Structure formats: structure tokens, C-alpha cells
Amino acid sequence: MAEAQANLEQIRYWNEQGGPRWVQRQQQLDAQINPLGLVAMQRAGVTPGEQVLDVGCGCGQTALELAQRVGASGSVVGIDISQPLLTRARMDLPCSTRKTTSRAWLRSRFCAPLPNRQGRPERYAGSQSDVG
Fold first, then answer.
1. What are phi and psi of 62, to 5 degrees?
2. Strands 123-126 and 75-80: what pairing?
């Protein structure tokens, strides 16, 4: 029961306080965490054609970079509990997908990832809201 309450508190926080604040300071915050995301992507060895689940995708910076890395034959699903962050992420999505011709989806709460041949994503990435 305590875990459920903690989840509800986090959902409320990221939708009412944390998310709107992040959106207001997005450039500064994204610049601070971008080096961490790049290192994580490098270590994960994401390659063209893979399917990636970005948990805590926030404003979508990492999901969009992942979409470029997996290319047109791969896909990225970004999920987050914060509607303000996802709304901001969707603002950048059409322009980015036109450039990379890859597929990226941004969803709220929890969703079923796109399966690979074995029925599970090939890579998982945690970003933005996982930090601090």
C-alpha cells in the first residue's frame, strides 16, 4: 500500500509541480543532463533497427536522439508520468521525425513496449526524470 501511495505522490508531483517547472527550465536542465544521456546511449550500444523503450522520457531529448540512432528501421517508445513533459516533447517530435524518418512515440503513464522478435524491447533507456 505504501508503494501505491508513493507512486500517486510522484504522479501528482510530476504533473502539478515538477513537470511544469522542468518545462520552464528545459534548456538549462537538458543541457545539464545531456552528457549523461549520451554516455548511457554509447554504453548501451544502440544500433540501427533496434527497438528502444525510454523510461522517464521527459521532454523527449533522449528519445529523439535514440530515434536518430535506430534510424528508419528501428523505433523508440518514450513513456513518462508527466503530461506537461510529454506535451513539450510532442512539440519537437514532428520536426525530428521528418529529419530522421524513424519512428518515435511518446506515451503517458505505462504502456506496452513494441516487441522485437522475442516479444520484448532490445534496449531500455532511463532518462531525465530518473536523474535527481
1. -70, -40
2. unpaired
Q: How far apart are CA 49 and CA 75, in angstroms?
A: 7
Question: Domain tally for the chain?
Answer: 1
Q: By the 8 A CB rule, do 37 and 61 touch?
A: yes
Q: Domain with 82 in it: what CATH number?
A: 3.40.50.150
User: In a 3-state reduction of DSSP, which class is residue 62?
Assistant: helix
Contact 85, 24 (CB under 8 A): no
Q: Could you list the residue range(s) of the whole structural domain that residue 69 is in?
A: 2-130
| H helix or E strand, kind and range, residue 123 | strand 123-126
pTM for the whole structure: 0.71
Chain segment 1-26, per-residue pLDDT in tens: 676 677 888 889 999 999 999 999 99
Q: Are 33 and 57 in contact (CB under 8 A)?
A: no
| Contact between 114 and 121 (Cβ < 8 Å) | yes
